[in-house]
Amino acid sequence: MDLAQGVQIVSFAVLSVMMIGAALGVVLFSNVVYSAFLLGGVFISIAGMYILLNGDFVAAAQVLIYVGAVNVLILFAIMLVNKREDYQPMAKHWIRQGATALVCAGIFTLLSTMVLITPWSIAPNPVPGQNSTVQIGQHFFNDFLLPFEVASLLLLIAMIGAIVLARREYIPDEQLPDLTKQTGLTLPERPRELLNPQRK
Amino acid sequence: MQLQLQYFLLLAAALFCIGIYGLITSRNAVRVLMSIELLLNAVNLNLMGFSNYLDPEEIKGQVFTVFVITVAAAEAAVGLAIVLAIYRNRDTVDMEQFNLLKW
Fold first, then answer.
1. DSSP code of A130?
2. A74 CB contacts (<8 Å, ≥6 apart)?
3. Which chain B residues are Cβ-neighbours of A91 within 8 angstroms?
4. For the segment A117-126, what is each residue's pLDDT rounded down to a tens digit?
5. B90 touches chain A (CB under 8 A)
6. B19 touches chain A (CB under 8 A)
7. Is A62 in contact with B62 (CB distance < 8 Å)?
8. From the centroid of its chain, how far is CA A3?
9. What is the complex's ipTM, to 2 decimals?
10. pTM of this structure
11. What is the distance between the alpha carbons of residues B45 and A53, in angstroms, rounded to a whole number?
């Protein structure tokens, strides 16, 4: 990336503040819809980080796949399971959260100590990556050809598995509940003409 | 002053710890999946940083990042389908009530 140093520093600072703030919002907000939208903010700022790291192809893939597919999928899942429920409070609630926060802070301390004391063997003069897309394509079709093809198989398996898992069960006609009493287990997305065939 | 590798690694470590905190403490099952996405993104940021600073000639870290993104997309689809199925069965998304196999 041939930007000036100051521009890189400033954009890194802005992106990191955005990313940490949005990630804290994802974890700490009580409304899940806010969390899902802030997750999109995290993904977009990570794509900016990738551009700072000379990975323009991966940045585009991040925006397309994460913001365009995964985040939308999460929003759809929130819509499908949208149920206002007040979780009943647990005993030892604060002890659990405090212990988790302590453990996470410990992991962060350990990781940052490791990062700061390790002598990284930085490559001497980083070549500006103008053709990272070409290079990634050459890797995909030379030495990573088998994982590349297996990835397509994995996506096929995931697609079929998701359809099978999330598919509605077949409801035979004679087992339909009568409409006069409302049961708590009635699925709201059941097709309507199956529910009241006599009322037409 | 120049952008160093350590900055990106520290940022990825912070994101990873936030993700672990959310993974353990959240009670909504969809939020648990979102925390898993945060963890995977922290790992991707590490891979991209190493690829840019330690291996700038042949950028294998970026190739690995693309594979991780692929697997994460598959994981999100299957995970959300499992959340939908378990919501239909138990009529809740509270993680504390998914204790059928506990005892």
1. S
2. A36, A39, B30, B33, B34, B37, B76, B80
3. none
4. 998 888 776 5
5. no
6. yes
7. no
8. 30
9. 0.93
10. 0.84
11. 9
